[in-house]
Amino acid sequence: MAIILVVDDELGIRALLSEILTDEGHTVEMAENAAEARAVRERLRPDLVLLDIWMPDVDGITLLKEWGATGLLTMPVIMMSGHGTIDTAVEATKFGAMAFLEKPVTLQKLLRAVEQGLAKPSAVARPATPVSHPHHNHHIGDTTLTVEAAMTGGQGLPNAPLLLGPQAEQSFDLDRPLREARDAFEKSYFEFHLAQENGSMTRVAEKTGLERTHLYRKLKQLGVDLSRNKRSGTL
Q: How far, in Å, CA of 234 to CA of 182, rounded?
């Protein structure tokens, strides 16, 4: 598949993204700062980079500018941040980033952004004026849609609440072996909470009391189809 470089100073995020992308068939290289990212970029030619904006030594925007100025921005770069603003997104676009993901990143948005980046490796997003949305306004407290819209000309990845999905009350066939009955219940349980939290692994982990990496492994073990709607970007 593809070689993907994940640059983030948080070990937990690097580990989780690595496990998800590896399960998708990609080869993942990791860096915790700009110096390590430069070394990996020099040693390899990654097909795509997931780059955190806020890092302790050199921030992601500065590294993006550096790669662009030295002719090393030959791969699509997706910026990530838990404190993004529209101005930051537009600045990242200006210097060559193709997309912006607001943390906590939902699984569907991550997979879709990676899929789009690998499908159009030469595409460079252009700055655009944010557009309004019937359920969102342009306050920084609600940046997930507007920041993405700033990067995509209003075509931000959908983040609308799920109207239909697994119901809170379901029936189960108990006339079966304990393991099968338990797995069926747990699968329905996690599918319900994923739908309720719009696919956010972080929020589902908090709601269910599981560590994110353990949660991801549990979902894979139960056969929960995490990418069933990744092309549409919705759950």
A: 28
- What is the token pair recorded at 217? 């492994």
Q: What is the DSSP string of 127-191?
A: ------BTTB-S-GGGHHHHHHHHHHTT-PPP-PPPSSS--SS-----SS-HHHHHHHHHHHHHH
Question: Do β-strands 3-7 and 77-81 pair in parallel, antiparallel, or remain unpaired?
Answer: unpaired
Any bridge partners for residue 78, and if so which? 50, 99
Q: Which two tokens stand for residue 221?
A: 């073990």
- Helices 34-43 and 60-69 pack at an angle, to 10 degrees, of 30
Q: Are 93 and 65 in contact (CB under 8 A)?
A: no
d(CA 145, CA 37): 28
pLDDT at 9 > cutoff 80: yes
The residue among 144, 108, 142, 133 whose CA lies nearest residue 234 is 108
Q: Are 91 and 112 in contact (CB under 8 A)?
A: no
Please give the Cα distance from 173 to 156 (Å, whole number): 41
Give the list of residues 6+ apart from residue 101 with CB closer than 8 angstroms, or none: 50, 78, 79, 80, 81, 109, 110, 113, 148
DSSP tag of 14: H
Model confidence at 131: pLDDT above 90? no
Q: Are 99 and 116 in contact (CB under 8 A)?
A: yes
Dihedral in degrees, nearest 10, Cα atoms 213, 219, 221, 222: 160
Whether 213 shows a pLDDT value over 60: the answer reads yes
